[in-house]
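Section 5.1 Outputs to date
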Amino acid sequence: MELNGPDLKWPAVLVTGVVVALLLAYGVHRWMARRSARASAAVANSTALTELPEYRRALKLHRIRTAVLALSAVLLGGAALVGAARPLDTTIDKPQTRSRDIMLCLDISGSMAAYDATLVSTFRTLVKSFQGERIGLVIFNSSAATVFPLTDDYDFINDELDTASSALSGDPQSESFFAGTFNGRGTSLIGDGLATCASSFDKVDTQRARSVVFATDNHLAGRPIVDVEQAAELAKAKGVRVYGLNPEQDGPDEEAVQMRELVTGTGGQYYAMTDQAAIRGIVDSVQAQETTLIDGAARSLHSDNPNLPIALAGVGLLGVIGASRRWAW
């Protein structure tokens, strides 16, 4: 972030004010000159008066007071014009983002109902550990739906995760959260969910590190379009590392073993949700991937800064008040 210096929101106000002030000053000068010419009259034997020390001192004080009054009026008027033009401090912000993309992929089928709210809380903890990475969220059951695409707007991400938490906790006002996840036949079509997540990254940007945090119990209950083995191969082909997060205990059951083999085959890691080191392990693994800082589009940030015009107007006002009073000597 760099300071670009002071600026004016409405510079036309200042220009117009200066032009009007100059025209008024010229008009007043012409009017006073004509009035002085008509009112002037020769006074005989006035030299004796004008040579008096008291007269000279009074004339000098009058000229000083007139000059102070004029300068103070100009200062007050000028400061008022600058204030009316809205002085601003302009700062150029050049945001930087890290070249990592992370898709949060959540199975919301019936077998996951008891764990989903806790998994969303886990996702929130993961998000807090990142800064500058782009995050997205996909949920799936009989079909997959994108809750929000990749973004680095963390306020928005947290708001969406709050909505997800409410919906998965049974809030009837958040039922729209599940829209688009019941368009297929069967439930818990895990391969379709993983394939959707792996395909959610930018097609043209191959320089960004890509990761999927895949939360599922791997209990298939239907016939997917893409089976989970094919989805894992798709992720691997796209350079996507899958980090599996299983809410059930890590044991010898076939689904857990299969899930471990699939995610480690993409270069990722497998964790049980009960593993206290799961969050730290996922964060460390993602952050260990090589990345570079990417400059975002520069943007101008403006903030009002009326301090100087107010101070100058105050000085000018004091000068006008002081010069307008009759000085006693």
